[in-house]
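Renewal narrative, Specific Aim 1. Our central claim is that a sequence can be written position by position from structural information alone. The example that follows is taken directly from our test logs and has not been curated for this report. It begins with the structure tokens describing the chain, in the order in which they were read.
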């Protein structure tokens, strides 16, 4: 009798989807699959104008926990030494020639182009958004409908398509509170970065508000790394280069 019960239970469990998760669990797993909770990375950001001209930037980025992120410009030469800091909803830009941090906001962009500061200095999606609805699409994806936790978040709502098997985003549509589509992010070219990090290496964005313009973010390295809280302070912004691997 007991064997029959266990066999029936096993059959039921085996029939469940591989990821029988609620929306919040899926979003948290998406965050961790994209990056470790604390990490360092190198990214190239490329702004492409309608005439085909390009402007490239390289950023060294470190993040700690759910609310601390610092990024340092390493190129082009005109931007080298600039750094940006995010602590929760607060953001700053440090310019060596100015000599002190300047407050910036999430909808501005320190590099121009379609990516704004919220995209460049992104915290975990599960920190900034709640899952209001989850659907399963016919092409093997979850579709998450996300609502910002407060008015300080750059986008009021997101629609996120997530690959069921990999639990990685494939596309995100970003909306204003009015329902206006601000931009779309496309996640492509999955790459093994080592240390168990397998994620899209390219994020491309376009916007109906900037017709003909496109911005691309290419990840060259992502690695788990823990740093002291001292790194994520206004006083440390001029010295971010001292923690950059040589």
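The sequence written for that structure reads:
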């Amino acid at each position: 009798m007991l064997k029959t019960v266990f066999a029936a239970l096993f059959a039921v469990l085996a029939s469940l989807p591989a990821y029988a998760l609620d929306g919040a669990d899926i979003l948290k797993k998406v965050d961790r699959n994209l990056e470790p909770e604390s990490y360092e990375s190198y990214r190239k950001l490329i702004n492409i104008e309608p005439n085909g001209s390009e402007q490239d930037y390289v950023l060294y980025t470190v993040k700690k926990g759910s609310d601390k992120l610092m990024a340092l410009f390493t190129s082009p030469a005109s931007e080298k030494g600039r750094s940006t800091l995010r602590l929760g909803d607060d953001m700053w830009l440090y310019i060596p020639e100015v000599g002190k941090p300047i407050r910036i906001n999430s909808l501005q962009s320190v590099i121009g182009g379609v990516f704004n500061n919220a995209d460049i200095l992104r915290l975990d999606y599960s920190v900034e958004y709640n899952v209001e609805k989850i659907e399963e699409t016919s092409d093997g994806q979850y579709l998450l409908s996300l609502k910002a936790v407060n008015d300080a978040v750059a986008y009021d709502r997101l629609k996120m398509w997530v690959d069921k098997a990999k639990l990685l985003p494939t596309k995100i549509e970003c909306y204003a509170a009015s329902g206006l589509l601000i931009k779309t992010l496309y996640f492509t070219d999955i790459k093994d970065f080592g240390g168990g990090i397998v994620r899209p290496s390219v994020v491309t964005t376009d916007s109906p508000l900037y017709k003909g313009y496109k911005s691309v973010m290419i990840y060259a390295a992502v690695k788990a790394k823990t740093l002291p809280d001292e790194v994520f302070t206004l006083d440390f912004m001029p010295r971010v280069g001292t923690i950059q691997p040589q």
